[in-house]
Structure formats: C-alpha cells, structure tokens
Amino acid sequence: MKVLVVCGHPRTESFCAALAQAYADGAAAAGHEVRLRLLANVPVDLEPPSMTPDPSAVAEWAREAQADVLWCDHLSVVTPMYWGMVSATLKAWIDRVFTSGFAYKFHSGKPWPDKLLAGRSAMVIITSDTPWFVFRWVWGAPLIKQFRHQIFGLCGFKPVRFTYFAMMIRSTPEKRQHWLEITRKKGAKPEAPAVSAATASSSSTASTGAQECVVPRE
To answer: What is the per-residue pLDDT across 77-111, written as a single tens digit (0 to 9) for each?
Structure first.
C-alpha cells in the first residue's frame, strides 16, 4: 500500500512530528511505500484558495502536495488541536490542496459533489490538552465530525479513522513513549480503502456513515 503521512504541526521539533515519524516507520517496516511530509518544511502560504479547477492557479508546493495525495492509497494526518481546530498551517494546506476540480466537483442541480479522491482511506491523529470525555461528550467531537463529513468524507476517503491523544500537558515521557508505540503499530496496519480508486471513480454519492474513533487507553 502507498502511505502518505502529513504532519500539520507548525514546528519541525514537536511531538506531532515524532508521531508522524512513528507512523511512517511502522508502515515502512511492514513493507508499505511511504512518503512523510512535515508541513513545517513546506512553504505553505495564506493566499486565498483557488475556487476554479484551473491548474495554473495552484501554487507549486500545492501541486506537489496534490501529486502526493493522488499517489497514495492511505493518508495519515497528524495534527495538534488549537482552540478546537487544526493548526493554521494545516488548515491552509487543506484549503490550497483539496480544491475544486481536484478533490471534489459540484454539478448544477445536485446537492452533493463528485468525490474525486474516492478509493483512499484516511487516519487522523489528534493531540490535545482536552480530556477525551470533554471533547467527545461535552463538545460532541467537532473536529472529528469536520474531518469525517466536511473534508475527507466529502472528497471520498473511506474509511476515515481517528486516534486522540490527551492530555498532552500532563503527559509523562513514559506516556508519550506508549503513544508512539501505539502509533507505530497503527502505521504497520493502515486500513485499506473501502473500494478501489477505479471502482470509486464512478461514484458521486456523499457518505454520512459514522466511523470508529479509536481512543488510546492507559
């Protein structure tokens, strides 16, 4: 399987970067082809995203990222949760990479777009200072819903899985090492897409099915 790992942390030296490396190492050790991208090393800018399918309107770094996404069978994104959202760097990357005509395509008179990236699976790994029970049961896991329904699900990724590591602010070196081992094991067994890219290319129906959220435990 071709595995793309993207770290959305704005700094190169971070626990998110260590998690991304662990996922990539696990996948490579299991024989998968792996590409690891740290967005801290990518010249992500804050230019408004292109709302047209014109390839010339896409920046060079975004075109390279799109080539990575097209290459992969499985996309793993590692991100810190800042103010209930992903980092500004990752948000800008999503805005500039998952554009109209590349990730989705609307048609007149139809409420749902074609899912142009169907035939791929995804894993989102979130680090947070918020306890899981607050994130899930008080807030309703809004970041998970956003990825599942409004980003990856809308573009055709299926299944979309999640792993949530908290609380970072109280974590010990032993706890972080345990989380790295969990991530490495998950990288060794990336979940295959629900359907092949060839089969999925003819589908234009949006998915709203709930996906499992994997919660690391003591």
So the answer is: 999 999 999 999 999 999 999 998 899 988 888 88
pLDDT at 212 over 60: no
Q: Which of 162, 125, 171 is nearest to 23 (CA)?
A: 125
* 165-183 pLDDT, tens digit each: 999 999 999 999 999 999 9
Domain ranges of the chain: 2-214
Nearest to 84 by CA among 135, 132, 153: 135
- Residue 140 CA, chain-centre distance (Å), reads 19
* H or E element at residue 17: helix 15-29
SS3 state of residue 203: coil
Beta bridge mates, 77: 6, 124
- List, in order, residues 6 or more apart from 22 with CB less than 8 Å away: 180, 181, 183, 184, 187
Q: What's the whole-number mean pLDDT along residues 33-62?
A: 84
How far is the C-alpha of 130 from the C-alpha of 167, rounded, in Å?
6
* CATH class as words, domain 2-214: alpha beta
